[in-house]
Amino acid sequence: MDLRDLYQEVILDHNKKPRNFGEIEGAAKAAGHNPMCGDRVSVFVRMDGEQVAEAKFVGNGCAISKASASMMTEAVTGQTSADVHALFAAFQDAVTGKVEPDEDQLGKLVALTGVKEYPSRVKCAMLAWHAMLAAIDNAGATVSTE
Ligand code: ZN
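^ thats the input. predicted complex w/ zinc ion below
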């Protein structure tokens, strides 16, 4: 598989310099594991009422999983729990090729929707998102893409 098409500049940049990389002490947390690729991610989220006040992640994995986690933490900050659920659904529909990506809603995340051509990579892109929802809905959960 040739990944060059996927490695757009924005993905490379987030992989090299992940944003919001680190832990948040005392925050809601969930871990995710993608056995197919070996990606592991832990997501931390601090809520202020219904709103995401701060989101961070740590983990190891391929460029797609890391860039997706990095871009996700930026995208969800300041959003309500309901917004994050809606964004998750829109992102999932776009990366699985169910719908054409909506740039107005997804913003920079559109860069990741190229994975729809590579079904095994969809799990890499979705991993941090599954963990994020788990952290928001049910602190301490562990999610797996399997
Ligand atoms: Zn991966």
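Residues 34, 37, 39, 61-62, 64-65, 124 surround zinc ion (CB under 6 Å).
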